[in-house]
Amino acid sequence: MHTDDFLLVEVVGTGYHAGAGKNDRTSFISVDIVRENDGLRATVIEATTCRDSQSKQKVLAMVWEKSFRPEKLDFVSK
User: Fewer CB atoms inside 10 A, N or C side of the chain?
Assistant: First the structure.
C-alpha cells in the first residue's frame, strides 16, 4: 500500500439472535473497508455462536468488490 492510500472503515451492522436453549445465541458484526484511491472494498463479517460458557464457534468471511466508488458516499456525516 502506498502512503497516499486512505482506508475508510465503517461498521455496517451488529446484532445477535437468541436460540431455542437459554444459552444458545449467535452474534455478528460486519465492517466495510474501502481503499479511497481506487475504490477497492472489502466487507468482513464475523459470526460467533456460543452454546454455553465453555464452547464457542467463530466464522470469518471476507468479500472483495472492485467497482465500489467511495466518492458517492459520505461516511463522515453518518
Answer: C
